[in-house]
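Bug #77: duplicate submission created two jobs. Keeping one. Sequence:
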Amino acid sequence: MTSVPELRVRAANAAEVRADGEYVVYWMIAARRTTANFALQRAFDRARELGRPLVVLEALRTAYPNASDRLHRFVLAGMADTAERLEGGPVLYHPYVEPEAGAGRGLLEALAAHACLVVTDEFPCFFLPRMVGAAAARLPVRLEVVDSNGLLPLAATEACFPTAHAFRRFLQRTLPLHLAEPPHSEPLSGPPLPRLAALPAGIAERWPAASAALLAGGSAALASLPIDHAVTPVDEVPGGASAARRALARFVAGRLDGYAEARNHPDLDATSGLSPYLHFGHLGAWEVFSAVAAHEGWQPDRVADRATGGRAGWWGMRPAAEAFIDQLVTWRELGLNFCARRDDADRYEALPPWARATLAKHADDRREHLYAREDLEAAATHDELWNAAQRQLRREGRIHNYLRMLWGKKILEWSATPAEALGTMIALNDRWALDGRDPNSYAGIAWCLGRYDRPWGPERPVFGTIRYMSSANTARKLRVAAYLARFGR
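Kept job's structure:
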């Protein structure tokens, strides 16, 4: 009997657990942390049941889409954190970084050939579902996939939700049952396991563990890898669980209390900055929720007993905390829900029918400005506020949350077709954003084209009844002078 809720666990293949295997493997691919991690907790429980050592494999490919110095350094910092945390502990950690495309092929199968079973992470997006499915078909032992994505298990929903209001009502009815089943803050605590001294002969020689110099992500190490060197690291946003915990502590102590009033103003930069850490799994949603709950002195009995779908008042926290929790839970997990239930979250066909209909009606409307993707990527438009947002994306790997909505709306306005606009948004965000390639990012981009929204009047050229935004109105409503000075020409 393991301590992980069964709703968070699924068998990806029909192979058996091999009781006489030498160890259990945790293949760390999404929840890249050693704390509050249901998958690591499950792997540790299984190893303890079987009386076997635990091996943690964390690998970094070079041929994943948009592989770059920026993304590689962020992930490598997390691997360095994990190596330090697990050194001398009860598990053997093997960080592997491909020196060239395809060099890591066969590593997982080689480890599985000696294993009792393999446990890995559920992540319903990017290339990970295909990778896990392919591995499940090849492995000679059971592959278990464990969901550490959010407070609500992905399997708790059976369909996609059309709006945040509908999803929030479902959460308010359902989530209290799952709040009583958090992950262990330290999954590796408890009776120690037998420790494996070394990997089986030949594996470490063919697929050696990354050196400390490589995990440090220095310029020379990155330059030796076949990845995109034009997308440079963001030194101000270091990766890893330690950096993530510091960022969380700074936000809760310094910005949470004013979050509701200040978060939309770019000059105030009052957002949490946690999305890259959540995307790469260096920080878990449960950890963020727990930190906010502790700051609020919150207890589960403060949850309201009504499911209205309203944004405020249900949690029994102060308005600023509730506004942030709505972003963390409702909006983030709404994107996870869509990706878990459909495989086309990043495609035009996944937009709601009303949105596609109104965009089709206005597909041939005259565009006052048309920009090629290359001009948009270079921030070479007539609109200085939009250009500033694109420069922030290139420089910092993020766009201020409110301006990211404007950024997407203007790309729709300046593209030859709505489908082209969607492709451009995804391409730019996936390449430059630290939190791109994520269900939350795809949900936010698709919102610019009508997903989770409703028709808005008056009907306009190009937009139809898609919600309209303009740079002039945004600059009038929000404080942007310092932002423009920082990211201006």
